[in-house]
Amino acid sequence: MMQDEVVRVEGLRVRYPTAARDAVTGIDFAVTTGEVFGLLGPNGAGKSTTQRVLTGQHHRYSGDVEVLGQPVAGRGRALYENIGVGFELPAYFPKLTARENLAAFTALYRRPADRPEQALATVGLAHAADQRVATFSKGMKMRLNLARAILHRPDVLFLDEPTSGLDPANAADVRAVIRAQADAGRTVLLTTHDMPAVEELCSRVAFMRDGAIVATDTPRNLRLAHGHRSVAVEFAEAGQLRQAEFPATDDPALLALLATGRVRTVHTREAALADVFIAVTGHRPAP
User: Fold this and answer.
1) Which end of the chain offers a freer environment for a tag, N or C, measured as fewer CB atoms within 10 Å?
2) Could you give the angle at which helices 273-281 and 219-226 cross, rounded to 10 degrees?
3) Mind listing the pLDDT tens digit for each residue in 52-61?
4) Cβ distance 225 to 59 under 8 Å?
């Protein structure tokens, strides 16, 4: 294993007992120290299964899977001392307060952990420390879930849809927390359909389709390879503002429209990672 590889997957193959085909079909990838690595794809592509293998929750697989330089298989408690896990369905005790929830989780770890108050402040929940979690909104529960995942200062974070269902302000707050974890040297493996989060956070992404990885690169390189730039124009017609899109600034139809004097705005539209998602997986990102 290379010195700075934190996660290494070689030939990972998973088939569930009643399934007719593999859920994961022999994939390879590696994630390095301090990297935010996005594992993307439509529902059923194999992302969550891969996460479950990496976090020691699914044991029936073939191939080599290592986290922090050691095989995941047989690690047991030692694995959970060093990783943080935050999946889409939050885990919490609804009758306890946020502070009491984190205190209970702190007791599970041998390594030093942040004080509950500190972790809650990190995710913007200091004001709700003594509020019962049953009364939390979904956004608050998701942020508590993230606080639990980072509570023991793990070396690797595995996050599944951490911004699911959040309003733009809450989603931005969660992205800022994830960015701060990477800036502190922690490695993050992120599965999500939130393309703005991927654009903002991920240094590299891998797209999965039907259990296989079909593209891996930086977001920028993937946009250049699979996306396209265009020119968006707003113009007046019959007393109304209309929109049109053209493939290039020297497109004859665009030049003809400009010559009419009816154009009100022109701007270049860069390729988006959502376009890459569609191009390489054949699906649109889930809302």
Assistant:
1) C
2) 60
3) 999 999 999 9
4) no
Task: Give the 3-state secondary structure percentages of the chain, helix then strand then coil, rounded to 5.
Answer: 35, 30, 40
Q: How far apart are CA 265 and CA 282, in angstroms?
A: 32
Taking phi over 0 as left and psi of -120 to 50 as alpha, with beta for the rest, 16 belongs to beta
Q: What is the pLDDT of residue 217?
A: 95
Let me know: does 67 contact 54? Beta carbons within 8 Å. yes
Alpha-carbon gap, residue 49 to 46, rounded angstroms? 5
For residue 130, give both structure tokens.
Answer: 């003594």
> Per-residue DSSP letters for 76-131?
THHHHHHEEEE-SS----TTSBHHHHHHHHHTT-SS----HHHHHHHTT-GGGTTS
What secondary structure does DSSP assign to 204-247, as a single string?
A: EEEEEETTEEEEEE-HHHHHHHH---EEEEEEEETTEEEEEEES
Count of alpha carbons within 13 angstroms of residue 61, beta-carbon side: 31
Could you tell me the sign of the dihedral formed by the alpha carbons of 239, 242, 247, 248, in that order? positive
Instruction: Order across the sheet with 240-246: list the strands.
Output: 240-246, 230-237, 263-269
* pLDDT at site 1: 44
Among 74-78, 102-106, 129-133, 258-262, the least confident range: 74-78
What are the tens digits of pLDDT across the range 217-273?
999 899 888 877 789 999 999 889 999 989 888 899 999 999 999 999 998 877 788
* Rounded-to-integer distance, Cα 39 and Cα 204, Å: 9
Residue with tokens 């402040």: 121
Q: Taking the model in full, what pTM does it have?
A: 0.84
Chain centroid to Cα 127, Å, comes to 27
43 three-state secondary structure: coil
**pLDDT at residue 169 is higher than 50:** yes
